[in-house]
Amino acid sequence: MNAAVTGVGTSFFGKQPDLHPNELVWRAVAEALAEADDPTIDAIYLGTVFGSPGVAQRALHHMGLTGIPIITVENACASGTTAFHEAAKMVELGRFENVLAVGVEKMTDNFAGAIHPESTDPEGRSGLALPSLYALAATRYQALYGLTDEDLARVSVKNHGHAVHNDRAQHRTPHTVDEVLASRMIADPLTLLQCCPIADGAAAAVLSAPKGSADEIVVRSSVLKSGGLWDYRSEHVWGFELVSATARAAYEAAGIGPTDVDVVECHDAFTIGEIVTTEALGLAHEGEGALLLRTGHTTVGGPQPVNPSGGLLSRGHPLGATGLAQVAEIVWQLRGDAGVRQVDDARIGLVETMGGGVAGIDGNACVVALLERT
Amino acid sequence: MNAAVTGVGTSFFGKQPDLHPNELVWRAVAEALAEADDPTIDAIYLGTVFGSPGVAQRALHHMGLTGIPIITVENACASGTTAFHEAAKMVELGRFENVLAVGVEKMTDNFAGAIHPESTDPEGRSGLALPSLYALAATRYQALYGLTDEDLARVSVKNHGHAVHNDRAQHRTPHTVDEVLASRMIADPLTLLQCCPIADGAAAAVLSAPKGSADEIVVRSSVLKSGGLWDYRSEHVWGFELVSATARAAYEAAGIGPTDVDVVECHDAFTIGEIVTTEALGLAHEGEGALLLRTGHTTVGGPQPVNPSGGLLSRGHPLGATGLAQVAEIVWQLRGDAGVRQVDDARIGLVETMGGGVAGIDGNACVVALLERT
Predict the structure, then answer these.
(1) ipTM associated with this complex
(2) Domain A4-110+200-214 maps to which CATH number in 3.40.50.720, 2.40.50.1020, 3.10.129.10, 3.40.47.10?
(3) Which listed residue (B85, B160, B171, B317) is catalytic?
(4) Which of A235, B41, B288, B304 lies at 20 to 30 Å from B63 by C-alpha?
């Protein structure tokens, strides 16, 4: 598609209760604008889940970003990638020339809207918050495919190992399989170190038309879908169908396949999530995602590193910011700017975020984007 | 622009604590889809301010609306019109064929994110909630232009008089100027009957390409802007510049002017809002908006009725739903389906919503759309 990423930026991710959301946004946006070929912004899409009304305008007018269309978008954990997707589409369609996509979440003091027992939502009333939902997916997957608790733990071990080299990540301590399994149980079989931490953070990207020059980072394709109907009778584990349908459409639009991908940032909010997602992205056959971990296929140094940033599990998961932090990591990797965690010769990168879920459907939303260094 | 409204629908507006947001959405969307030429929906934009994450997917999957792109948008009081604006733009740009715009807000039990003293936002910390902000605008306007308290009250009298004939409106009792002024003081000079009531509601519209046939309702133009910098040193009353800049752009894109407009639905969250807005829309000179009320110019039966539905003041203001309820009223008026409150020979209608504000800027966002019966 006819869109290039000309600048990215992020704040530090982690518990930062003393920072106002504005300050998180400023750090991310200032870095992205400083990199951009043309910092004249024509429109802004900002992703947030629990941000207060006007969180975008509140932060951005201090940077002189006023008057232009500003739209806040929400798609659960995929809010940041939804902002990115809309921004890229608007450039492609010629609606705007330079579009800023931003994501922000201040979770340490603004998590009021979260699923809770007094909610009108069935998930809240039943106690089926996200950790429980992923735990049910994990036990179903284990029953179907013989996945072990150790296999699940290996996702956490890999991603914590990657985050050691990411100085913007929340958790930078390496962990062993035994440590992961010995951490506090949250929702069986998911222990604490298999659940992404609550974080504050912001991330941003500037999208513009490609110039046709060498070493540009272009968006080969970007697809957004919402989940189809899903319940216990469905053939696949929860989330698989939505991610695989979105990925298939993204590969088709880009004219490439899973083996062409050099580096992936995907939605590992819980360890089982990365296993199901890497299968849905076509990196492994269904039921065989654990092999990617056992063989080192998805570790930095292996053929297709997944979550070299540390992923949501280690970088932290400020909901609306996550998708754009994934984009930033892929852009750094494709530029060769990722330092110690650099994936060799990375030319094509994939970003995937799944937001959700709501009882009865296979995820609220999923975005898969394919980026390439020309 | 190349977009037509082929169906609209709304729930009843008012305090409906026993209804789930889903039920509000179903009523609005079912009505809109039943009217639409083609109920095959390719994408959905849903506007809400305080709706919980997934409020769109939660409601819509029960109607079979899954799989397609669904994006929740927020722009304060302009969230519903932002959904409408994006939907119309996507049809115009050829990105999607049939797009559903929905707005919903359940305010009787889900107002948690509102401005409050514990907030990190300066408005919350200073007590400058929306009634206070509009009251400051009112006193400044009174000081500048000699507007009387009776002039302010006349907005409420007119709009309550209109709502008597709208069986979906929250408040249908007519009121006199004396009654409006005698109602409880909220933020001087704004009394209770000059402030829009908290409501639950949903509204929807289906956008598709025009067929070129007679009696279609087409979108002549739609413009979305965010506010520029504003403080006490600014030349105009708060909100004027944003609405007038947005309106000027909408008129220019449609190739018409204020005198071509037959009927208006505008943002009268507080009485002063309608006075400033009608001036910003070019229906009166700056400082002379009260004349429109004294002469009956904007009353149904007059030359340019404003808020024939009863407006936010009487229909109620479920934030995310309001913009699409305004669109629905204009569509009914242009079709000649508005019953006792029908504006004679209405051919061109204007919708305006302003969302905000955030300290330091002239409104978070404003949408002005011009609709026409071909």
Answers:
(1) 0.95
(2) 3.40.47.10
(3) B317
(4) A235
